[in-house]
């Protein structure tokens, strides 16, 4: 078995196509090496080793050690060094890398191979003892932290105290002797903590680090991250071992991170940060404030320190050429990590960069126009979920605001919430339904759950590429980073900025796009969608097969939906129109009526109200189909609760209050979800359905006459299980419809159909289709009735199911393809067998979920219907499903 793949100058055994085997990092290192880019040589241990490791009780497969030894010798030879050698010691980094980037994993260990002996060799060889000891102290600290799991605070404390005592401000002021002293302090910490000295055998160090990576694949942080991002445990991680290059060799060396375009806005310029005389994570850790890449960005930010363009022009030019080459090669925006050792550029990582929704749109559209990608590729580049970020509010520009602090605009969006200072509390409060803003000095992968729970994140430290910034952008949370004036009190009861104090629990508003935090809840406004949005949506509309409709009852929602490109209404829930104060009395009267006569009296009051509701909807949706569902919910939802309410109904209907009370009592149900609702109401009280049918048809006629536009009502009978239920009601609806059309003297197409939301209906869809002119899959109820699972009650145990992996997805969010989906497919097929042109759609929550939309495309339905704000998401997802 081949367990190890080498990469190095101008060639590599692996490339980007081997991502599953080598992880993202390893595969791209191979790809960059093959492209002829300057990549320090190294090798990648495959994800299959990880799988074997866990299969065999955390032991390594045979042959692995020999392959690693050989690869290590080869790496040493190509740089003229040798691992463990006293005078020419090869140093390596040990880096983890799964298929998908995973912040929950082990951190990279740099400078591995340094010991008390080899550090002397490095000092002599480089002629720079300060550099050698700086590297050694970094190694001891990193290795102790991530491999030996010694608490890192002790190390930080030693360094802080030493710097204070010696009046140093920056690490770069430390001399070789200073670092020697620090190193002996560090080694003592390790020995005290572990009862044995820091490992002095480079082989032991190497295997320690490799094992730490593989073990970290199943640590708590990684498990949480995988769960949140649906990454299967079976993927495993790879490990890359790579010859070190040094950014900490003085003023001609540096380390940096960069994006080929701005990941916040998508603007096409080089975006990034770098630090002179620094190594690895220094830029991200926010210990020193990094410098800008280009002169232009520096001037824009008002920085004093020179940009890379100014400080290292030759390396900068080289870097620009690399950016160009990588973008053309990967045909996507790249996120790059690089190091400059004594003026020479080295590439350490590239990957497709994470970006905001706004940037994602702009980059896709720009790249298509630049001829780098096709329209279809551009459509596939944008994650439909991410559009959510664009469709949500930003701060009202006219609103008054009282500034708390300013930091870096790390991730756009606006949100208000209560101040909290730690992630566990953020999660707890969010579960109680509170909006929270998480305020931290900095964040680490341990904060993922808190960041997820928070509406926004603010940190005191860190730049635009810090952990907080990257993770927040990925999650679509607004984030302000590097707010240097922010001081969180040790008690975690308040923070201060300048002279002002903000207590825990106080409400603040974050504006991530501006990098600002305000006191109180600042009002927000709807976003203006950019030209890029319209353009990409246009491309998506050309491609998609399925229509997209919206679920809406009010003219306002219908208008929002239409503005977002909805092509009709897929579900108008008439009961939502019944709850308004001026109507509920009449509705109660109708329900509590003792006989048909009483009911009809109440219905007469409701008819004009319903008719005007429908007229408003038809007007907004003129020219487009509108599906209206007859009254569906269990009666008890409308029952009067208080004596006052009963009094009111008694007054309005002339019935006796006590009688009303008895009647309400009689209507009580043990299991309303499966009780007297949907078409069952219509079977018991046909006059209710008849009133609704009349209101719909009269409204349609009025609007058709008034506007001259085509009006297409689709009358939908809910909760049908047997064909006979639908037949019973359809006959009555048709009667009314014909009557109304005759009264109005016009011709108008209308359809009568049903919701498929019970397994029996799906299984007998061929029979039902004899009467139904359309099916709309009510997948919320169909999921409830297929699983026998109540949506309202499942919240208490669904998390257990997710944790245990029994459910991979919440079936109320993403359509269960095997069960519920199978019923959809059966019903679609049977329906079409009876009535080849039957119209098929889906109108549950799933209608706005991209994965469910993808399934529905496969099942060949004609349209999806979703909430108004999700319309663009559905349009894009439908296009992607088709491609
Ligand atoms: P992460 O996945 O957290 O980004 P990496 O493995 O990319 O971890 O390592 C983080 C940083 O460490 C890199 O950006 C780079 O600056 C530094 N680094 C890693 N390997 C080397 C190396 N061989 N030489 C110099 N620096 C390295
Ligand atoms: Mg990296
Ligand atoms: Mg239903």
UniProtKB/TrEMBL annotation:
Its cofactor is Mg(2+). Residues 434-515 form the PEP-utilising enzyme mobile domain. It catalyses: pyruvate + phosphate + ATP = phosphoenolpyruvate + AMP + diphosphate + H(+). It is an enzyme of class 2 (transferase). Belongs to the PEP-utilizing enzyme family. Pfam families: PEP-utilizers, PEP-utilizers_C, PPDK_N. Catalyzes the reversible phosphorylation of pyruvate and phosphate. It comes from the Bacteria. Keywords: ATP-binding, Kinase, Magnesium, Metal-binding, Nucleotide-binding, Pyruvate, Transferase. InterPro entries: ATP_grasp_subdomain_1, PEP-util_enz_mobile_dom, PEP_util_AS, PEP_util_C, PEP_util_CS, Phosphohistidine_dom_sf, PPDK_AMP/ATP-bd, Pyruvate_phosphate_dikinase. PROSITE patterns: PEP_ENZYMES_2, PEP_ENZYMES_PHOS_SITE. Residues 61-298, 316-369 form the Pyruvate phosphate dikinase AMP/ATP-binding domain. GO terms for molecular function: pyruvate, phosphate dikinase activity. Residues 530-882 form the PEP-utilising enzyme C-terminal domain. SUPFAM superfamilies: Glutathione synthetase ATP-binding domain-like, Phosphoenolpyruvate/pyruvate domain, Phosphohistidine domain. It comes from Hyphococcus lacteus. This is Pyruvate, phosphate dikinase. Its EC number is 2.7.9.1.
